[in-house]
Structure formats: structure tokens, C-alpha cells
């Protein structure tokens, strides 16, 4: 049996045991099985998840959902524990994967700094984190260690998760001033998305790629042109733990960089920039709206307004208005 077949067999064995658990709340059995799963999936692997048979794909989808559920319980457990301290922010190291968040946040900050601005020292004024959960460690670590003047808006659909998260930062005079929590479905947030320089999308927002793509399309529609989107993905066998996001899933964005760690940081990091003008309709519809039919080349990609060179067309202010609207 090849190494890939052994890996798949091992993952399916662990999935079988996890799926029989009565609860995924932290316990000795739950912790042991998920630790075994992570240790199985972390070593570098050339496995291509998309080529696996359909039954394995279905097992993977179910496993990702179980991992997400277990992660939610783990975060809620430690958020409650941390809230028992007078200042929870001083005790974050009690969370067993805190060091991973320190490394991942440092990595994301480095990647963001490289692509955010050509001017040194220019940092985002306002960041949204979508899917922040009851223990918003990425926001907390970035705000405390790296982006000390930035405002963080944390979005989670679960009001209870936000209440738990807010309790962690409320005793801290600095973070309580710069961190906000919004209990809402991100698909219902529209014009406010233009206010953010950077939007982070948590790994577990959209447990399968079709759900995640719907969220990405929504962000592409409402984010400010030139805004930065940072996502977490997975590579190799780590794709049994988290959904994989590829460039083809980021319509309306220019992918700037994809980084695959090979250490205990599990998530890959994807950074993309919202295109200056995204095409919200197919270009035939778009050209009909402009009322200029055959003047526009059929290769129009993301409404390349440079195509409109005809003197006749340049007189049409409607094009400028459309460009500004987009």
C-alpha cells in the first residue's frame, strides 16, 4: 500500500471513531482523537484531495464539519475559562494552541505588510474579521502585537459567541476601545463592507467550498475597490481538516500571494486584492446596459474601461459614472 493510501486509510479510521463520539466538547477521548488526526495530517504530503474517490470526498466534507464543531466547543470552553481571570488577555497562553496563533498572526502580518502599501509604515485603519467566534485570538494578537492603532470589527452570526468574546477584551482599556463585535450574518452586511481596508475570512466560514465561494462573491460585490481580503486555506493532507480555497474561487479579486506553511501552523494563507472594477453581470448584459453593443471588444475582462477609446464613446459620461459606481 502506498503512502497516500495509508494516509487516507488512517484518516478514515480516525473519522470513524470521531463520528461515534456522543459529544465533541473537550474531553480526554475527544482531545486524543483530534490530536491524532492533526498529527496524521500535518506532515508534508503530495496528496491531491480533488482526485480522491467520491466516497472519500464525502468523508472529508463530514470530517471538516466535525473539526469545525469541535473547534467551536474548544474555543467556547477556553473563552469561559479565561473569563474567570480579572484580565483574561494576560492569560491567553492557557489555550493549548496559543503559540500557533502567535505564529500564524505574525505570518499574516508579514504577508499583509508586504502587499498592503508601497509606503513603509502605512497600516490599515480598520479591519473586519468574519467568523471571529468566542475566542477571537487572531484579532487579539494582531491588535496587541502588530497593529496597535487599528480598529477591529469582529463579525459572528452567533450572538453568544460574541458575548463571550467581548467579555475577554472588556477589562483591557486599549482593546476594549479598538474592538467591536457584530452579531450578524455577513451575507446581510452590505455598504459597511466598504469601510474596511482589510477583511479576514476565518477558515471555518463556509464549511465547504460552495458555501465559502458565496461569501467571497458577496465580499467581491460590496468591498471597496483595492481592499485586501485575507483567507485561510489548506494544502496537502491538511485539506482533511479545512476547506481549500484556490485562485479560481476568488472571482473579482487579484490573488497576490498564497503561502503554505510546513510547520505546526496548519492553515495556508491567501491574500488577494479586490479588483478596481468587478463585473457583476456577464459582459453581454453589461454592454446592453451601456447601449453600445458592437463598440466593446468581446474580451472585456472585469470591465476594462481602457477599451473605450472611440471619440463617440468618450463623450458618453455614462461610462465614467458606471466606472465610479463599480
Explain this structure.
43% of the residues lie in helices and 12% in strands. It has helices spanning 3-19, 28-41, 54-82, 98-116, 137-146, 159-169, 175-178, 209-222, 283-290, 311-314, 317-325, and strands at 126-130, 151-156, 179-183, 198-201, 228-233, 253-259, 268-274. Helix 1 packs across helix 3 and helix 3 packs across helix 6. The protein folds into 2 domains: 1-276, Vaccinia Virus protein VP39 (Rossmann fold, 3-Layer(aba) Sandwich), CATH 3.40.50; 283-325, no CATH class. With 326 residues, the chain is of the alpha/beta class. It contains 11 helices and 7 strands. The model is unreliable at 278-326 (pLDDT under 50). The longest helix is centred in the N-terminal third of the chain and has 29 residues, at 54-82. It has a 7-stranded mixed β-sheet with strand order 3-2-1-4-5-7-6.
